[in-house]
Design a protein that fits this description.
It is built from 16 helices and 12 strands. The protein has 436 residues and is α/β, with parallel strands linked by helices. The protein has a single domain (10-166, 179-428), classed as TIM Barrel. The longest helix is centred in the middle third of the chain and has 19 residues, at 143-161. It is globular and about 75 Å long. 47% of the residues are buried. Residues 18-378 form the Luciferase-like domain. Belongs to the NtaA/SnaA/DszA monooxygenase family. One of its GO terms (molecular function) is oxidoreductase activity, acting on paired donors, with incorporation or reduction of molecular oxygen. Keywords: Flavoprotein, FMN, Monooxygenase, Oxidoreductase.
Length: 436
């Protein structure tokens, strides 16, 4: 999800059924209730720390066209959504590039307590200069070095989250003992990026600590995801590629000493459904036509930290230009792979990334049976442990999925009938995360 004026699909705000009250708590609570009605395990917010203003070195096109320009802090929004739900997991993005360990550890553990153990943290590294400038930095950190910093921060945070034993608090009024000091540990972390010393201030939550969501796709990013992630979000074009990537990531996790069953690989999908195939196809045609070319160009510039306004449509990128791309390397790798060109053109980036369209991820269009058939195929063939559902419009896309598709999946016995328990970690089948 996005804490902004549109969904992952930037044209979604143009949909005649999209709600316009995205600056109100009612909007997010309606989404939360739709997700919980469909027994979704988790709603999580992607986020960046700047609006897209790299294309043409200006914000005007993005603002005029509503291309993900409203970006609110997702943490208070999750607290608002938690108040209208009982079981839905809720995750927020906080950047490892510009926030320190104590801030993230305390914010997320507090949120976990206030949601009864339903919180998750979507771990990201910030990727473009616009974010750097907003956060007071001179420019973004080089791609692999961002992950070096993130590794240190994760080690630090896991130490903080493990500082209190679950039974440390005694609350013994008669003897005047609040907690057992032997069950609370201090930390002294001295690294390249972080130096922290102290004692963490928030005891463990009902689920131990928040679930860790990650989406690293490049070589270094994938290594990071498999070391730290529990729910790993990916974007794959088809089942065959999904199987390959899931197998590779599970193998990477094993090589890092992790049980691969402690991670869930969840590729993204769009779903457009209705009572009949014809109705679904009519909905899709409408949704597909909402996108504008400027949407993709603006978002490609944002995510790759490169001004696409400087390139002609059929002009290949030079080796020097490709080497300067310091944004989301997974998209560059995808475009090179799918185009078969070591020096793709701007057109190749538009065609093969799907950025700004409902083709960025596989789009399943059909009646409930057809949609269920496709999702079941991905699951049974080993391409997915679960799915991240992109919305063509909000809250309607979630409501329609819950109304039409979920009952069909439940009938087949491949979708839970109810939540397993009160915590997100329990509902996902995860035990307490290992100490680093």
């Amino acid at each position: 999800m996005q804490a902004q004026n549109c969904s992952n699909y930037p044209a979604s705000w143009r949909h005649h059924q999209s709600a316009g009250d995205f600056l109100t708590p009612d909007y997010y609570q309606r989404i939360a209730r739709a997700l919980e009605d469909g027994k979704f395990h988790l709603g999580f917010f992607d986020d960046r720390l700047a609006l897209p203003d790299i294309y043409g070195a200006d914000h005007k096109e993005a603002v005029k066209n509503g291309i993900r320009v409203v970006k609110m802090d997702p943490v208070p929004i999750l607290a608002t959504m938690a108040m209208s739900t009982k079981n839905l997991g809720l995750a927020a993005t906080i950047s490892t590039t510009y926030y320190n360990a104590f801030h993230i550890a305390r914010t997320m553990m507090t949120l976990d307590h206030m949601t009864g153990g339903r919180a998750g943290w979507n771990v990201v590294t910030s990727l473009n200069d616009s974010e750097a400038f907003n956060m007071g930095a001179a420019g973004t950190i080089e791609h692999d070095r961002r992950y070096d910093r993130a590794d240190e921060l994760m080690t630090n945070i896991i130490d903080m989250w493990g500082a209190w034993d679950s039974d440390a608090i005694l609350f013994d009024k008669e003897n005047g003992v609040f907690a057992d000091p032997e069950k609370v540990r201090s930390y002294d972390f001295q690294g390249e990026w972080f130096q922290t010393r102290g004692t963490f201030t928030v005891p463990p939550s009902p689920q131990g600590h928040p679930v860790i969501v990650q989406a690293g796709q490049s070589g270094r990013g994938r290594q990071f995801a498999c070391e730290w992630g529990e729910v790993i979000f990916t974007i794959q074009n088809n089942v065959e590629r999904g199987v390959q990537v899931r197998n590779e990531m599970r193998e990477e996790a094993s090589q890092q000493g992790r049980d691969p069953d402690t991670i869930a690989i969840c590729p993204a999908v769009y779903v457009t459904t209705g009572e009949t195939q014809a109705i679904a196809e009519d909905k899709y045609a409408y949704v597909n036509n909402l996108a504008k070319p400027i949407d993709g160009l603006t978002l490609l510039s944002e995510v790759l930290n490169f001004d696409f306004a400087t390139k002609d449509y059929d002009e290949p990128f030079t080796d020097e230009e490709l080497g300067s791309i310091n944004g989301l390397r997974g998209i560059l790798d995808k475009v090179v792979r799918l185009s078969g060109k070591s020096n793709p053109t701007l057109k190749d980036f538009v065609d093969h990334s799907g950025r700004g369209t409902v083709h960025e991820a596989p789009h399943i269009v059909g009646d409930p049976k057809y949609v269920a058939d496709e999702l079941e195929k991905w699951f049974i063939e080993g391409a997915a442990d679960g799915f991240v559902l992109f919305a063509s419009h909000t809250p309607g896309a979630y409501e329609e999925f819950s109304r039409y598709v979920v009952p069909e999946l439940q009938r087949r016995g491949i979708y839970h009938d109810d939540y397993a328990g009160p915590t997100l970690r329990g509902n996902l089948g995860f035990s307490s995360y290992r100490q680093k």
